[in-house]
Amino acid sequence: MHRYEESDESLTKTFLDIVEERFGSLQFLKFKLLYDTKKRIKQGKLILATVELPSPKIKFFSRDKIAVDGYDLLIIVDKKMWELASEVDRRRVFSHEMRHVFLDEKGDVKLIGHEIEDFYVEIKLNGDDPEWQRKLGMLVSDIYEQEKQMLKDGKPKKKEK
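Now predict its structure.
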């Protein structure tokens, strides 16, 4: 089993809806959407999704009929999170990731960090559920831990010497 999987229709549709609704100025960019099938932790936190600038090598290898020069950006989404999240939270994840994308005065794509732990505009947009990200992260982490425990419980015990 490979760590990364191609996006499916649900991931693509939600992404395109968010781009059209909130990020029209970025519609000309080529995004490669991928699922990550493994748990990622950074600085002690579960990563639900990331947006990345591809290296020149990845850009070269990502060339296809859609992106003849390679993709401008990669969005990698935790597959388990996607399966567990509500449609509202799925939209929130993409909206958050897209806030990292910035076009400079030359039109070059850059990534920017958070203004705070989130983005001010996202806090306002998610006023109905300001804890959505923490709750979703906890749910996904719990499922990963349950699966880990099930695997551990299902393994035959080692023989004692």
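The mean pLDDT is 90.
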